[in-house]
Predict the structure.
Amino acid sequence: MRKRVAVVILVLLQSALTYGGNAETLPQEYWRHPLAPQGEAPKDWSAEEKSLRPQECGLCHADKLAEWRTSLHAKAFSPGLVGQLLTFDSEDVHSCLNCHAPLAEQKQAFDAARAAGKGHLPTAQGLAAQGNSCGGCHLRNHRRFGPPQRDGGAVGVSPADGSHGGVTRSRDFERSDFCAACHQFPQDMAINGKPLENTMVEWQASPAGRNGQSCQSCHMPDRRHLWRGIHDPAMVAAGVTAQFSAETGFARFRLTNTATGHAFPTYVTPKVMLKAVGLDENGAVIPGSAREHVIQRRVAFIDGDWIERFDSRLPPGQSAGLDMPWPASGRVRFWLEVHPDDFYDHDVYDGLLRDLPKSSAAARLIAEADAQARRNRFTLFEREVTRP
Ligand code: HEC
Ligand code: HEC
Ligand code: HEC
Ligand code: HEC
Ligand code: HEC
């Protein structure tokens, strides 16, 4: 009996949360994967209001559409993803799409394209091709959710006579937890104590986390939908500080994580290298003089288990260094090399390219992703240091 009362209370509580009411917090299940289908849109809405496509949102929110298009969230339904999806069963496909194309309608669209033998064609993928788009973050049951109103900070439900029946505004959009649904794995998936995605936990332990400086404040300045990260040279340069010095016996390159609100870098995918070569009197590289220091969390999947080989990433405030003994010329060149997709490039794509039938659509997509991963590499902070 007591149990039944508890169940009833729980159900009531859940429906109150689902409804949202005037509460300024988002419904508890807002980010529970898989997301529920939107259902029928109100009959009196225009086709633009009913649409789940970012292009239609952009008719009235042009700035957001333009910014989002430049971001990796817009490119999350990528060749590297789809090339793998084509080799998976439907259940595994859906688990990937929870983060890469989260709406139920996107899963349906991809399933339909695949059933028609056209899963590899962006023109056939429909809404799925839009990746992590407006609807995944802003739409539940055709209702728009967003942050407190820009002018005045109003929260809660706005009058229903506005476009798309108004909006429910919540401070949760300004909180880091909003991003955790896709950027933090649970602790029970830890490898050597840390899940493969541990950004939220790293952030909580950082000065930024302690000062309440949210993910959004760095990745969506002034609410701009940019989400720059390790693929963007300017963002990386803003997050770390490079120092060069001429010491008595050697030249030194130090890199410090000064403004990245989590480990630099946070994921297992990038590889960052401090590099040095000695130069001769004419400025030519001295053969065999190259040195490097690797910053990376290196993991491997072996016999069905993940293992960590090493973790040399820089938590906030920490530094890495590379010393180079002076060559006779007293000239040393340093630089930082960033390979944002190193793990996919070597551990995932190379294996798939070996195993997949050469002319298959999946192999073509993975080859495209592999080439893109190589193009994504860049260098920063190139500098020559000379002996005084
Ligand atoms: C026909 C024009 C129109 C379309 C199409 C449209 N919106 Fe809106 N949107 C508005 C207007 C007008 C407001 C302000 C509503 C209010 O104050 O009640 C708004 C408000 C919002 C807000 C809250 C911002 C604020 O004012 O605080 C979000 C978030 C939002 N829309 C998301 C979307 C998404 C996502 C889509 C596409 C799925 C979309 N909108 C499509 C006109 C539109
Ligand atoms: C629905 C899942 C989802 C949510 C919610 C989400 N992200 Fe992402 N995010 C992704 C995926 C997937 C990618 C990788 C896209 C790709 O390259 O395929 C990504 C990429 C990024 C990147 C680019 C990383 C790089 O390598 O340069 C940044 C930065 C980022 N997200 C920040 C955020 C922030 C901040 C929030 C919260 C406001 C957030 N994300 C919310 C799924 C999500
Ligand atoms: C919990 C959310 C989440 C899930 C589930 C997820 N991913 Fe991702 N994925 C991300 C984020 C965040 C990134 C960007 C950071 C990175 O590179 O690790 C990413 C990046 C990628 C990339 C490299 C960027 C690109 O788009 O080319 C590939 C490929 C990828 N994921 C494939 C998959 C596949 C295949 C699955 C299912 C087996 C999957 N992901 C499941 C969050 C997720
Ligand atoms: C990965 C999640 C995510 C995606 C995808 C996304 N948004 Fe947002 N959006 C947010 C967050 C979080 C905020 C609030 C940021 C803050 O308060 O710092 C926001 C804010 C907004 C606002 C309010 C802006 C303001 O100035 O008050 C609008 C309007 C909006 N988004 C529309 C869109 C549209 C249109 C798209 C697609 C083109 C889109 N969003 C894609 C997460 C997302
Ligand atoms: C103090 C500013 C700051 C805060 C706060 C912050 N980031 Fe970052 N983030 C950066 C900088 C700078 C980079 C580029 C350097 C790098 O990749 O580590 C970055 C990179 C990333 C990347 C790229 C992938 C990678 O391996 O580095 C993702 C994803 C990301 N951040 C997500 C988040 C999420 C989610 C949060 C909140 C839990 C967050 N960030 C909080 C500054 C910040």
In short: The CA atoms of residues 59 and 115 lie 32 Å apart. The first helix runs from residue 2 to 19.
